[in-house]
Design brief:
The protein is α/β, with parallel strands linked by helices. It is 39% helix and 15% strand. Helix 2 runs antiparallel to helix 3, helix 4 (96-109) packs across helix 5 (122-133) and helix 7 (172-178) packs antiparallel against helix 8 (193-206).
């Protein structure tokens, strides 16, 4: 797995699929998830004539870890809840903009000036930030099962929030078994406990690192609203959201599409906060059309 420097402080693990002469598509993964969560999807998109690039976000997988900056999630949430934003900011060593710059830095390191950017969940927030901060680098934006940073949109259900914020087993067996809890936000029709366990096992074996979760969470929460930046975008934008999504309610996708001028909204029946293989034809067709 190649690892490349994207800035003086950060190196990222990445992988490419397809012909480098084809249009470049950068895939940005979500909160605490490794790039292997895109497995299979990358090749399917590359087979449609795209040069697909995926990578581990900082503090995840095989990319740079910020171990010198531990974050106490309880203290951080307490500071945010009490309105002590200065204290919360002081706890977190990087921002969502820094995470966006990692992806753009990867493109630069690979000699790619502009790319189609596709982000999933927190990756959608990062992709939005790339488009807002460096629109000259983004050929098109796809924001998938994500939101705008406005707290009134895309709120999780109580059940999904409990699973997301609940304790995670540190041993392999417990980690794999606990993956089934994610069915709470998966597709009601296509949710697959076996697939969740398999991804959890492969992720654990590749990198069982959990210390970065608090830092990624902090960067995501402190990013705030992107509404004004999204309103100002002038590029092709596709917003994809599953109607079964209980982790980021579909209102997050609807709001994103409402804000971006001329954007296309694709609401997908039978899709939750996941990408079921059964729906890949729908998703790949939409991405191939959008990035053509």
């Amino acid at each position: 797995m190649p690892i490349i420097d994207v800035s003086p402080a950060v190196s990222v693990a990445y992988e490419t699929f397809g012909d480098p002469s084809d249009p470049a598509v950068l895939l940005v993964m979500g909160f605490s998830a490794q790039m292997i969560a895109w497995d299979g999807f990358c090749r399917a998109l590359a087979e449609r004539g795209r040069y697909v690039i995926r990578y581990d976000n900082r503090d995840c997988g095989l990319s740079t870890k910020f171990d010198d900056h531990p974050v106490d999630v309880g203290r951080f949430i307490g500071a945010v809840s009490s309105g002590d934003i200065a204290a919360a900011v002081a706890m977190v060593p990087y921002t969502l903009r820094d995470m966006a710059d990692d992806g753009l830095g990867l493109l630069t390191a690979l000699g790619i000036e502009r790319a189609h950017v596709v982000g999933s969940s927190m990756g959608g927030m990062i992709a939005q930030t790339m488009a807002i901060s460096r629109p000259e680098r983004v050929l098109s934006l796809t924001s998938m099962m994500s939101s705008t940073g406005e707290p009134e949109y895309g709120r999780p259900s109580a059940e999904a929030q409990a699973v997301l914020s609940g304790p995670k087993p540190s041993d392999r067996e417990g980690h794999v078994a606990a993956a089934e809890r994610e069915l709470v936000w998966a597709s009601k029709r296509y949710g697959n406990a076996g697939a969740l366990r398999d991804l959890a096992a492969r992720s654990f074996d590749r990198s069982s690192y959990r210390a970065g979760v608090g830092r990624q969470l902090g960067a995501m929460i402190l990013a705030g609203s992107r509404a004004d930046g999204l309103r100002a975008l002038d590029l092709p934008a596709l917003v994809i959201h599953g109607l079964d999504d209980t982790l980021i309610d579909p209102s997050g996708g609807r709001r994103t599409a409402d804000l971006i001028p001329g954007s296309t909204l694709l609401l997908v029946p039978d899709m939750g906060h996941d990408r079921p293989r059964e729906l890949w034809p729908t998703l790949i067709d939409a991405l191939a059309d959008h990035t053509g």
